Amino acid sequence: MRTEGDSWDITTSVGSTALFVATARALEAQKPEPLVVDPFAEIFCRAVGGDWAGVLDGDVPDHQLKTPEFGEHFVNFQGARTKYFDGYFRRAADDGVRQVVILAAGLDSRAYRLPWPDGTTIFELDRPEVLDFKRGVLDQHGASSRAERREVAVDLRDDWPQALRDSGFDPDKPSAWIAEGLLIYLPAAAQHQLFTGIDALAAPGSHLAVEDGAPLPDDYFAAALEEEKAATAQGDPRLFFQLVYNEQCAPAEQWFGERGWSATPTPLAEYLRDVGRPVPGPDTEAGPMVARNTLVSAVKA
Q1: Which residues form a coiled coil (predicted)?
Q2: What is the pTM of this model?
Q3: pLDDT, tens digit (0-9, with 9 covering 90-100), for 124-173
């Protein structure tokens, strides 16, 4: 379970979820017609090894990401989510935005794989252990970022706005923000604090993209949490419900819309259909996750 002030590296607690997502992106890239190809996702998985590499080679057929009731849909979800946010950043760049802020950057490789315009600076915020792992792996493979990349080693529960400014962020210039796979790991009060920090630092003309999610029904969440705890006690290493907060301060579209942003929500199920991927049914393991998820993009007037 989460505790106040808890910490992690890339293989533990919340940090391991970045590896889970990277593995899904790597599996998407193996498809004959992938929605998106992130060549660095596989590099991260193989750097850690074990099942993270084995599932890519087909050596772990019972891995959660290989199951038809969850894994196949989750891989589709990650492919679609990545495609959506890649397109968002291209639009922001086309609008002349040259400051990018990736909150809880994890193993996001966009600084290395997207075609950024000259003069772009990308600020990646995450815990120092996560940033150290990422930098070490990419340096070992001789990867070069395609924009100026600045690491901001900070816990988002601390004073990250000041840390961002100290790293050279200019709040008087437009910026492009992303909170992808982040909000579920924050309680409602911390979500509000995060949104407030973004709004305060974003100049007019700034862009924002958020992966938003309505809370699951309390009885469903409680039952899933107890089931996962029992599995953990029996040695099952998989964690999800013990890491997340089933809370929401307000839908991102509403919160930012009330503060002068023009926000456009796209339900995940709708976007999956748009890109030609199946939507899991409500009785599948992945169904509730997809049904509650919305991809939101916004521009500050």
Answers
A1: none
A2: 0.93
A3: 999 999 999 999 999 999 999 999 999 999 999 899 999 999 999 999 99
